[in-house]
Amino acid sequence: MNFKVLDKKIDDIQADCTIVLVLNKDLKHRWIKDSKILKKLGFKGENDEIAFSPENDTIYASSDSFESDDIRCAVSNAVQCTKKYNYKSAKIGLYTKKSPTANARALVEGIVLGAYTFDKYKSKKEPLTLKNIKISTEDYSDKSFNSDSIKNAIDEAIIIAEATNSAKDIVNTAPKEMTPKKLAAFAKNMAKEIESLNCFIGDENFLEKEKMGAFLAVSRASSEKPRLIHLSYKPKDAKKRFVFVGKGLTYDSGGLSLKPSEHMVTMKSDKSGAAAAINIIRAAALLKLPFEVHSIIGAAENMIGGNAYKPDDVLIARNKKSIEVRNTDAEGRLVLADCLDFAQDLKPDFLVDLATLTGACVVALGEYTSGIMGNSEELKNSMQLSSAKSGELAGVLPFNKYLRKLLKSSVADISNIASSRYGGALTAGIFLDNFIKDEYKEHWLHLDIAGPAYVEKPWGYNQYGASGAGVRMCTYWLKDFYYKENSVHKEDK
Ligand code: BES
Ligand code: ZN
Ligand code: ZN
C-alpha cells in the first residue's frame, strides 16, 4: 500500500473514493457537511457503523472519538468496505488541528492492519484492490504545521503495522508448515533481507551443549527438532541493550498431560510470543532505533510419544535448578526458563519475554488484554502506557510472596505448576522469576499475551486469526524510551 500526504483540500484530490469519519456525537448535532446524504443512507452513527454512498463514492465510518484507537477501528472498517467496490485509491482527511502526527499514525496503522487478510489456504482469493491512499491536511491550519513530521509518522506507522501483519502470517501458518526449523528459516531469511540484522540458529546439539535440559525435555517427543533462534541488531553507538525472549511452541498438544480436543485447536498460536519477538526486532531495525536489540526464541513442539517427558520427571535447567514436572502442558515456562537464562548472558539493560503462557491470564483479564508482570513498578507502568498508545490492551498483574510459596516442590528446587489453581497467570510469571538473576530482577518484564494473540471472534481491527499481539506494544515502548531519552516534544512523536 502506498501513502501520500497532500497539502491540499480533500475536494481537490483525485481518488476513486473518499473515506469520511463521522464522529457519533457530531451526528447528533447534525452540523456535518454530508448530513443530508447520511440521513438518506439511514446512518445512525452507531458503533462500528459503515455506510456507502454510490452517488459520491464515499464510505462513511462512524467513530466514537478522534482518539487514536477509535480512528484505527473506523478506518479499518472503511478499508474492509472498499473491498466490495474494487476501488484502487482512496482519499481521507487528517481530522485534527491538535495532534496531526498522532492522527496520521493512527490512520495509517488502522488502514494497514485492517487491510490484512490471510488467504494462503483458500482456493479463491479475494485480494484487496486498494493500493493508494492520499491523506489531505486541509483541516490543519496551525502555522507550525510540519509535513516532515507527518511523513515521518506515516513511515513509522507503516513499519509497525507491517511488522504486526508479518507476526500474524507466522502465527496463522499451519503447524505442519511452520515447524521450529521453518520458523528458524523465516528468521534467517528476514535477517538476510534486512542488512542490519544478524541471525544465529542453534540446533538440538547446541541446546545439549548449552545444557538446556528444560527446553530439550519439552521438545523430545516431537519428530520436529527444536531450534534456538537468536536475532541481533547492533547499531553503532547503541545507548541501551534490550533483549526480547519469545515462546515459540509451534504446536502445543499439551504433551502427555494432553489437552482436551476443544482446547487443542488454535494451539498453532502458541508461537505468538516468538512471532512478536521476531517482528519487534524487525521494526526496531527498520526504524533505525539507536538501541541494541536481541530476540531469543525457543522454538519447539510439545507432543506425545514413547520418549515424551513425563509428569514426575525432574529436569535440570540451564541455570542448574531442578524442576519437578507435574504437568507437561505447562511447557512454555520450561522453554522460557532456559531461554531467559541464555538471554541474561547478554547482560541486558532491559529483558522482556512474550508468551501465550496461561489460560489463567485470559480468565483474569479477558480475551482482549495482555498481562504485564515483573518486579519493577516503573517498568510495568511504562509498558502499560506505551501499550495504551499503541492500541494494545494490557493490564498489570501484581506478584506477591504468598503465591511464590505455591511453587514449592517436595522433590526438586521448584515445581512447574502451582499447588493452587487460582492466580495461574501470576504463578507462571513467578516461575519465570525464579530463573531471573538478582541483578536483572528489576530489569525484567513478562508479557502474557494468551488472550489477545489469537482472535476467534473478530473485534476492533482484528480479523479472525492471529492479531500480532505484543509487536505494537513493545515497539511503541522502545520508541517511547527513545523519545524520553531525547526529550522530544510530545506532539512530535
Ligand atoms: N499454551 C498454553 C496456554 C494458552 C491457553 C495459550 C489458552 C493460549 C490460549 C500453555 O502452555 C498451557 O497449556 N498452560 C496451562 C498451564 C497449566 C497446566 C498450569 C493452562 O493454561 O492451562
Ligand atoms: Zn501447554
Ligand atoms: Zn503452551
What descriptors fit this protein?
single chain, six-stranded mixed sheet, elongated, 493 residues, binds zinc ion, binds ligand BES, 37% helix
Describe this structure in words.
The protein has 493 residues and is α/β, with parallel strands linked by helices. The chain contains 16 helices and 19 strands. Helix 4 (100-114) runs parallel beside helix 5 (147-172), helix 10 (272-286) runs parallel beside helix 16 (471-485) and helix 13 (377-390) packs across helix 16 (471-485). Ligand BES is lined by residues 252, 270, 327, 329-332, 356-360, 362, 417, 424, 450.
Largest sheet: 8 strands, mixed
Bound molecules: ligand BES, zinc ion
Q: How far is the first residue's CA from the last residue's CA?
A: 23 Å
In what range is the share of β-strand residues?
15-25%
Shape: elongated
Query: What strand order characterises the main sheet?
Result: 7-8-10-9-13-17-14-15
Number of strands: 19
H/I helix tally: 16
What's the overall average pLDDT, rounded? Answer: 94
Low-pLDDT sequence parts: none
Estimated helix fraction = 25-40%
The rounded Rg comes to: 23 Å
Secondary-structure-derived class: alpha/beta
